[in-house]
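Posting here for the record, re: NDP.
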Amino acid sequence: MEKILNYINGAFVEPTAGKFFDNIEPAKGEVYSQIPNSQAEDVEKAVNAAKEAFPIWSTMSNEERGDWMMKVANGIKARMGEFVAAESRDNGKPVKLAEHVDIPRAVSNFKFFATGIQHFASESHNMVGVGVNYTLRKPLGVVGCISPWNLPLYLFTWKIAPALAAGNCVVAKPSEVTPYTAYLLCKVMDEVGFPKGVLNIVHGYGQYAGDAIVRHKDTKAISFTGGTATGKAIASIAAPMFKKLSLELGGKNPNIIFNDCDFDEMLKTTIRSSFANQGQICLCGSRIFVQKGIYEKFKTAFVEKIKKTKVSNPEDPKAQLGAVVSEPHMEKVLSYIDLAKEEGGTVLAGGHRVELDAPYDKGFYIAPTIIEGLEYTCRTNQEEIFGPVVTITPFEDEEEVLKMANSTEYGLSATLWTSDLKRAHRMADQIDAGIVWINAWLVRDLRTPFGGVKSSGVGREGGWEALKFFTEPKNVFVKS
Ligand code: NDP
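Prediction output follows.
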């Protein structure tokens, strides 16, 4: 069986202790490769390689670093089919989703920061008759990047690309649940002859390999995307060590639909914002609030469409939903559906596991699920489920829906549907979220700040925010 390997100092290596664990294909529920069970000693080697590479990488011109990164972007593009198939196999997502979203966006991440760094400038503050301040922005050194399983290569490169562009050397760990495309990325690095030690990828469990990256005294910053509980654990280690921290965490995003919206456009997009990637996108709108005037119309149309949604194996070109990422995750999502029923909810669509024919009969499929009749304060409406499950709740007016929307501990994103622009601005201003879409969902401009408030995280990724995070400002004053 194929063994995934770590990539340290430009070489593919087994973990020092020689231990591996199983990588399971969610569509079939079968083991298909082996993942290194890396430990602190492997992270130590990766950090040492990164430290050694840092003086050369950090003093290269921005143009030269950008050129290297463009080679990686082109290398991924050249192996597009292989990356797409691997992402779908590792994660369970439909091939067409990996083809249209995950892998092209990973390419864009490299391109965006390879070129963005050419335009990155720092400030100067003149004091008339006194002198001038200028601010240097220096790379931090070795940084740690840790990413989740839902958009594996996309979110992995969203961290690595700005870190590298800014002149840092990286030790990174992809999710143990979906390591394969990070491994393919190493093959691309190897092919293009990327400078050794600049990017090191260590595979393994969060509690060992991830923890060792966070604890290592020489990782100067930790950029983490994942669950809120993990973020808290990471912060408790990294904050007392005074590391820079970027935490992109969970969400429980409201999708707020007013009577005066463009109904057809809203319905089409709400189907996506509810169930794209099996609902496993941190930006999915899992709490749908609908104004009373169109509640029944929406409910009927939404339920009818969702009942016709095709859950199928990821390779089926007609698959609208594929498998969820793992058996434990499937069990977690199903347990939330049981909880919703206990809390008094009515399941209008879905609510169960889907069993496909062989060879997919052991795969982890869940029917897209719509639940109504729940209090906005109940656990189903407060806790992150991160699967193909949404609740629908009627509301009277802005005041009521704002109270419900802002009631969770999370504050990542929100979607508003209305043709009243003044109301849209008013609501966008008052809603607890780092990202608000008005009459749209998941439109991404890589220049904009990305991140959440409250328990959804600390700091922002994207554009200059990411380059600022991965650099340290140093102000210099010169007397005139
Ligand atoms: P986890 O928090 O379980 O894991 C994320 C990463 O952290 C994995 O690589 C994991 O390793 C690692 N990890 C786990 N424990 C530790 C530790 N103690 N120290 C260091 N690293 C550790 O999240 P999931 O992978 O389950 O991803 C789903 C979550 O990610 C959801 O909550 C979702 O909302 C959030 N997310 C947030 C986004 C945002 O931008 N705000 C975007 C996408 C997802 P291992 O593989 O062993 O678990």
